[in-house]
Each structure stands twice: as C-alpha cells, then as structure tokens.
Design a protein that fits this description.
Strand content: under 5%
Helix content: over 70%
Number of strands: 0
Order of helices and strands: HHHHHH
Distance between the termini: 90 Å
Number of domains: 1
Oligomer: single chain
C-alpha cells in the first residue's frame, strides 16, 4: 500500500497537478482576502473590526513594499502562470499590464487602508463634529 501511495505522489508531482492545486488554492485565498477586506472597509462600522483590518492591510502594504511584489501573487505566477490580480484588472478600464502589477497593487492596498483609516478617524471625531455643527451663532 505504501508503494502505491508513493507512486501516486510521484505521478501527481510529475504531471503538475500539485502545482496546479497550490496555484488554485492561492488564487482563491487571494480573492477571498481582497473581497473580505474591501467589504469590511466599505460596509463595516465596528471599530474593533476596522482597527484589526487597518493593521492587517498596513502589514500587507509593508510586505508588498519590502518584497516588491505580493507573495501570493508570486506563488500564483509561478504555479499557474497568471495571477488573480491580473485577471481582475483586465475588467477595469485602466492602462494595465502585468509589468505594472506592483504599482497597481500598492495603489489598491493604499486606497483601502486610507478608507479604513478615515472611517476610524471619523468614528472618534463624530461627536466633536456633531457638537461643532450644532453651534448656534445667534
């Protein structure tokens, strides 16, 4: 039985099935991270969740700057030959090709981090802004 499993493992590695599965898994993970962070950033008003997401996106931003590419995109590119970010950006009306992936990813990550940071800032300033707007000058 061990001999059959060993031969099966070798065959799966030889024909690229393992690489393809790792690539698809990383693509699914990448898309889930992108849409979850975007959904939380736009629709959530829970301050704890927003703070955790802001820290998470800041760490992702620093990782992209230090590595000069997203690690998940690198795995997708080596395993599948294409990335989910490239696939998503093909449907946006911007001048995009895969050589600009780094700048576009940084732009998206920075935008969502800014949105989340501004929501946190407005959460803490909302009472002060309300008091300022209710001042009667007459």
């Amino acid at each position: 039985m061990l001999k059959v499993n060993n031969n099966l493992n070798i065959e799966l590695v030889k024909n690229g099935t393992v690489d393809m599965l790792i690539g698809y898994f990383s693509s699914i993970l990448h898309v889930v991270i992108i849409f979850t962070v975007t959904f939380i950033g736009i629709f959530s008003f829970n301050i704890k969740l927003l703070t955790i997401t802001c820290i998470f996106t800041t760490l992702i931003l620093f990782a992209n700057i230090v590595l000069h590419d997203c690690p998940i995109s690198h795995i997708e590119k080596t395993r599948l030959g294409d990335t989910s970010v490239d696939f998503i950006n093909r449907f946006f009306p911007i001048n995009y090709d895969s050589s600009r992936r780094y700048e576009v990813q940084l732009q998206y990550i920075f935008m969502i981090t800014s949105i989340i940071g501004l929501k946190i800032l407005f959460y803490f300033l909302k009472d002060d802004i309300k008091n300022i707007l209710e001042i009667k000058y007459t």
